[in-house]
Amino acid sequence: MNGEGASNWFDSGGGDYARYRPDYPGELARFLAEVAPNRRLAVDAGCGNGQFTRQLAEHFEAVIGVDPSADQIAHAAVDARIRYEVAPAEALPVADRSVDLITAAQAAHWFDLPRFYAEARRVAVPGAGIALVSYGVARLEPGLKERFLAFYHEEIGPYWPPERQLVDTGYAGVDFPFRELAAPEMAILRRWGAADFLGYVSTWSAVRRAREAGKEELLSAFARDMTRLWGDPVQARPIRWPIAMRLGIIA
Questions:
Q1: Residue 140 CB: number of other CB atoms within 10 A?
Q2: I want to staple 220 with a disulfide (CB 3.0 to 4.6 A). Which of 7, 17, 30, 164 is the partner?
Q3: Residue 50 CA: distances (Å) to CA of 23, 27, 79
């Protein structure tokens, strides 16, 4: 990726959510399946293109992925164990007392939580698990880290929707009216080249809003700087996202 390519990155259509959003580690779905009282049915609310839904399907007889975006559902990978539905988390198209695990991965900050919790109680079998999962700000190597954090907090910061603060805090401040359980420490680990990392950044809602506000040069300057700091753009560098979770049992 040369300097010109970097400066044009955010114009390039690189914001492909399904391609660039990092998957959760397999241990997360495995752990949540162990919390569930049975493994007949899980529901993944706000499932997007089904990244985490597919991981749940490795541990349950059936999974229902629910998202209000028809475009996201259209890009979800087909799996015989998964049924995808276009619907909001506050109106789950699921039968009463039928679900062993309800998850929301990087999505609960968009929900009307009291209504979602009411739906979770409606569809849950006694003792079902419920998990609000998120991953925090990416952690990069020294040299890259400082430029990235300046962009995240100061330059692009004003363009994050208010709900982003809930993600940054791991939903620590939200009401969670369930018997809460401790969760083990987990993280998403990747080794990416510069193009993959910038592709990931291009999926952010704050980047979209900055572009709509005409802040193309701000984005281009960040892409140029990160490409320069990366060195060889194809060199795979470690990136870590800490996972946060509110985990509970529905009585």
A1: 21
A2: 7
A3: 10, 17, 10
Helices H, strands E: what count in the chain?
Answer: 11, 8
**Domain containing residue 156: CATH number:** 3.40.50.150
Half-sphere exposure of 167 (CA within 13 A, CB side): 21
The predicted pLDDT at position 17 comes to: 61
Chain-centroid distance, C-alpha 15: 15
Helix residue ranges, H only, 1-50: 3-7, 17-20, 26-35
79 sits in the region (left: phi over 0; alpha: psi -120 to 50; else beta) called beta
The pLDDT of residue 24: 94
Domains in the chain: how many in total?
1
Tokens 């401040």 belong to which residue? 173
- Residue type present at position 40: R
Cβ atoms 64, 44 nearer than 8 A: yes
| Token pair recorded at residue 53 | 């839904």
User: From CA 181, how far away is CA 86, in angstroms rounded?
Assistant: 30
Integer Cα distance of 67 and 46 in angstroms: 4
For the chain, residues with pLDDT lower than 50 are 1-15
